[in-house]
Amino acid sequence: MIPLEERRDAAARRRRDGVLAAVARAGGVSSVAALKQGGHSRHVIDRLCADGALLRLRKGWVALPTADPHLMAAARHGVVLTCVTQAERLGLFVLHSPATPHVAAPPHSGRAGRLAATVHWSTPAVPRPPGTLVDGIENVLVVIAGCLPFEDALVVWESAFRRGLTTPAALARLNLPTGARALLEAADVFSDSGLETLVVPRLRWLGLPLRRQVWIAGHRVDLLIGERLVLQIDGATHTGVQRTSDIAHDAELMLLGYHVIRVGYEQVVHRWPEVQERIMRAVAQGLHHA
Fold first, then answer.
1. pTM of the full predicted structure?
2. Which domain holds residue 28?
């Protein structure tokens, strides 16, 4: 027979562990109301805060000490992580990391106005439930449409489509502002990377067929310009075995009568005029023709 005192201690540990597990499932930050709704005792929550197992962020909000600092800041100040900050947290391709966090706040939120952050006050495309700390993908993309330059925003939108976080059809059903509607019309679900997203709009002025991810000689090519000019765009992972495979494929393409231009991240993002000039010279020489 287990002594009564030991049974009580074990029950107390289970209650403590239950609260900590619930906070962990919530992403490391939770409202006290949500914990109580889940059947957890306010007394146990207070004891965990007193012992340092939980941090009290502000009235009604607690967090694990190891929680995401962005999430803790959002709970502490009553705002929602959105725009490029939440896009990066979701693993989307963002060209330029923000200097300060981007958050959303309801109108007349005095607390948010004092934050060292970029605050978005616009009405969300999808309503935010009370206690929300992070925006849904639809709201993230709509806020980005009104915050970033068109090209930078398009990179994030197409990245979201590639990751399967939403679809053009789902976004089309929303009441989108003009900027977001323009991005939806321009976005292409077939781009394989953020770098491809940048390149195609920059080359449309040529008036030539631009086909992404065409299968030639056993592999896909990033962009086929006209009939025979191939643009291959290397990301940071094109090293080692991948690089060797790419070189072999380039050789095979050239033997089949294609002309290959291979560029990297630095060239596309920071030295685009050089890339464009190389493509223009190739077109001027007719290398895009069969």
1. 0.81
2. 4-67
